[in-house]
C-alpha cells in the first residue's frame, strides 16, 4: 500500500528535525573539534557558518522536500526531470549511509559506557585510568560490535514503526528530556572552582588559532550539526503539510541546535579546566576525560549517567533521520515494504560499519592516508562529502528550481515578505557556494599558488 506519511503535529516535526540536527554533531563532535581547533575562534566560526550558510540551506532543503513530497532521489527527479540532478539525492543517500556506518559505532560506545556506569565500572578510578579503560573497551571486538548491534537494533525498531508512531513519538519524548538533563549538567558544571576558565576558552575567540583546516572543520561542523548536504531534511520536510511555516521551523531548529551546542560546551569545558585536564583529547574527550571530571564531584556518577542518557537520546534521534532517508528511498511510500527494508538496512549498515568498529583494535594498524578507517570516514564525510552535498543542493535550489515555485512554496503557511525571500535566495545562491568553494580551494593550496 502506497501512502506518503505526514507528521502528526508541527511540534513533532520540529522536535524530530531538531533531534536529527543536534545528535552526535553537537554533543560528541563539536566539543572535541573545538578542543583541538582553538576553542572560541572555532565556536565563533561555527555559529557564523550556521547562521549565514546553514540556515539558508536548511530552508532550501525544506522547500524542495515539501514541494516534491517524495524521497531524496525522487525529489530531484520530480523537480528536474530527464536530467542528472537526481545524482544529488544519490550523493546524499550515500553520505547518510557512510555516516551511519561509523556513527553507529559511537552510539555503541555510549551504550557500553552506560553499562559500565550502571554496574559501577567507572567508580573511583584514578584519573589516568579512564583513558585506559576506554581504550580497552573499544579495542575489544566483542564489546565494540555488541554495542554497535544494540544501538542499531534500537534505531531500526523505532524507524520500522513509521514516521508518526516511531520517529515522532520517540523524538517528542527524547528531546524535552535532553534539554532538561543538559540544563542540570550545565548548572553543576558551572558551579565548579575554576569553571570560568573553561567558559572563556569556549566563548572568547583567539583568532590567532585560525587556519584553513580550522575554517574547513567549522564549515563541515555547521553542515554536520544540521544534517545538511545529505538530503535528510529533504526527506523529513516531504512529510510536512502545506500549513507548516518553513522559515519559522528552520529558525526553531537552528536555534535549538546552537543552544545545545552551547550547553554541550558549558557542560564539558568548565569541568575539564576545573580538574586541570587536557581539552585536546580528540574523539575520546567525552569518554576518557568526562568520567574523571564527574567522578570528582559529589554524586558525580549520577550526573554522568544522566549525561550518557541524553547523549544516547541525541545519537538515536540523529540515527532515526538518516535511516529514514534511506528507507524512504527504498520503500517508495510502500508501507508493506517499510519494515522489511528497515531491518535489511540495519544489517547492511552493521556489516559496512565493522571496519570502523575495529579501527581501535584489530584494524588499528590499517590506515588510509595516515588515518584509521574510522577517522578516514569521519574526515571524508564531514569535510568533503557534506560540504560538497551542500554546494550542489544550493546550486540546484537557486539555479534549477524556478523562482516562482520557490516563492510559492516558501509562502505556503508563512507570512514572510519579499525582503526575506531575496535575502535568503541570494545568500543561498552566492554566499553559500562561494564560501564552500573558497575554503575547498584554500585547503587544496590553490589560493596560495594563485596569490
TrEMBL record:
<dbReference type="InterPro" id="IPR000175">
    <property type="entry name" value="Na/ntran_symport"/>
</dbReference>
<feature type="transmembrane region" description="Helical">
    <location>
        <begin position="341"/>
        <end position="364"/>
    </location>
</feature>
<feature type="transmembrane region" description="Helical">
    <location>
        <begin position="91"/>
        <end position="115"/>
    </location>
</feature>
<protein>
    <submittedName>
        <fullName>Sodium-dependent transporter</fullName>
    </submittedName>
</protein>
<keyword id="KW-0812">Transmembrane</keyword>
<feature type="transmembrane region" description="Helical">
    <location>
        <begin position="251"/>
        <end position="277"/>
    </location>
</feature>
<keyword id="KW-0472">Membrane</keyword>
<feature type="transmembrane region" description="Helical">
    <location>
        <begin position="423"/>
        <end position="450"/>
    </location>
</feature>
<feature type="transmembrane region" description="Helical">
    <location>
        <begin position="384"/>
        <end position="402"/>
    </location>
</feature>
<feature type="transmembrane region" description="Helical">
    <location>
        <begin position="172"/>
        <end position="191"/>
    </location>
</feature>
<dbReference type="Pfam" id="PF00209">
    <property type="entry name" value="SNF"/>
</dbReference>
<feature type="transmembrane region" description="Helical">
    <location>
        <begin position="297"/>
        <end position="320"/>
    </location>
</feature>
<dbReference type="InterPro" id="IPR037272">
    <property type="entry name" value="SNS_sf"/>
</dbReference>
<dbReference type="InterPro" id="IPR047218">
    <property type="entry name" value="YocR/YhdH-like"/>
</dbReference>
<keyword id="KW-1133">Transmembrane helix</keyword>
<feature type="transmembrane region" description="Helical">
    <location>
        <begin position="12"/>
        <end position="30"/>
    </location>
</feature>
<feature type="transmembrane region" description="Helical">
    <location>
        <begin position="142"/>
        <end position="160"/>
    </location>
</feature>
<feature type="transmembrane region" description="Helical">
    <location>
        <begin position="214"/>
        <end position="239"/>
    </location>
</feature>
<feature type="transmembrane region" description="Helical">
    <location>
        <begin position="42"/>
        <end position="64"/>
    </location>
</feature>
<keyword id="KW-0813">Transport</keyword>
Amino acid at each position: 500500500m502506497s501512502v506518503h506519511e505526514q507528521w502528526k503535529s508541527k511540534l513533532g516535526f520540529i522536535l524530530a528535525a531538531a533531534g536529527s540536527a543536534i545528535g552526535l554533531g553537537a554533543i560528541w563532535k563539536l566539543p572535541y573539534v573545538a578542543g583541538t581547533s582553538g576553542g572560541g575562534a572555532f565556536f565563533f566560526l561555527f555559529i557564523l557558518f550556521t547562521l549565514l550558510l546553514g540556515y539558508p540551506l536548511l530552508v532550501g532543503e525544506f522547500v524542495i522536500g515539501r514541494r516534491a513530497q517524495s524521497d531524496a532521489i525522487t525529489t530531484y527527479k520530480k523537480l528536474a526531470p530527464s536530467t542528472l540532478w537526481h545524482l544529488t539525492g544519490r550523493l546524499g543517500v550515500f553520505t547518510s549511509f557512510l555516516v551511519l556506518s561509523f556513527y553507529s559505532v559511537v552510539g555503541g560506545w555510549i551504550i557500553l559506557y552506560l553499562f559500565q556506569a550502571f554496574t559501577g565500572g567507572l567508580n573511583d578510578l584514578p584519573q589516568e585510568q579512564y583513558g585506559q579503560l576506554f581504550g580497552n573497551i573499544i579495542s575489544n571486538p566483542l564489546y565494540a560490535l555488541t554495542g554497535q548491534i544494540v544501538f542499531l537494533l534500537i534505531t531500526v525498531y523505532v524507524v520500522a514503526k513509521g514516521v508518526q508512531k516511531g520517529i515522532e513519538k520517540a523524538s517528542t519524548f527524547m528531546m524535552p528530556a535532553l534539554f532538561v538533563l543538559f540544563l542540570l549538567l550545565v548548572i553543576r558544571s558551572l558551579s565548579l572552582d575554576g569553571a570560568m576558565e573553561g567558559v572563556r576558552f569556549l566563548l572568547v575567540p583567539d583568532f590567532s588559532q585560525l587556519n584553513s583546516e580550522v575554517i574547513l572543520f567549522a564549515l563541515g561542523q555547521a553542515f554536520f550539526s544540521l544534517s545538511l548536504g545529505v538530503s535528510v531534511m529533504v526527506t523529513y520536510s516531504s512529510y510536512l503539510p502545506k500549513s507548516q511555516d518553513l522559515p519559522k521551523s528552520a529558525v526553531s531548529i537552528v536555534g535549538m541546535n546552537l543552544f545545545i551546542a552551547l550547553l554541550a560546551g558549558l557542560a564539558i569545558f568548565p569541568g575539564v579546566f576545573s580538574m586541570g585536564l587536557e581539552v585536546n583529547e580528540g574523539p575520546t574527550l567525552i569518554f576518557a576525560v568526562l568520567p574523571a571530571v564527574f567522578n570528582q564531584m559529589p554524586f558525580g556518577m549520577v550526573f554522568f549517567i544522566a549525561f550518557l542518557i541524553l547523549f544516547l537520546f541525541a545519537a538515536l534521534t540523529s540515527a532515526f533521520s538518516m535511516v529514514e532517508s534511506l528507507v524512504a528511498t527504498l520503500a517508495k511510500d510502500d508501507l508493506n515494504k517499510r519494515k522489511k527494508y528497515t531491518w535489511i538496512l540495519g544489517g547492511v549498515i552493521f556489516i559496512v560499519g565493522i571496519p570502523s568498529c575495529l579501527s581501535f583494535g584489530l584494524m588499528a594498524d590499517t590506515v588510509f592516508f595516515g588515518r584509521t578507517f574510522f577517522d578516514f570516514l569521519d574526515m571524508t564525510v564531514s569535510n568533503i562529502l557534506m560540504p560538497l552535498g551542500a554546494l550542489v543542493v544550493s546550486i540546484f535550489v537557486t539555479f534549477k528550481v524556478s523562482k516562482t515555485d520557490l516563492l510559492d512554496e516558501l509562502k505556503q503557511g508563512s507570512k514572510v515578505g519579499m525582503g526575506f525571500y531575496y535575502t535568503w535566495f541570494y545568500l543561498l545562491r552566492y554566499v553559500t557556494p562561494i564560501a564552500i568553494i573558497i575554503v575547498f580551494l584554500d585547503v587544496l593550496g590553490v589560493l596560495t599558488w594563485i596569490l
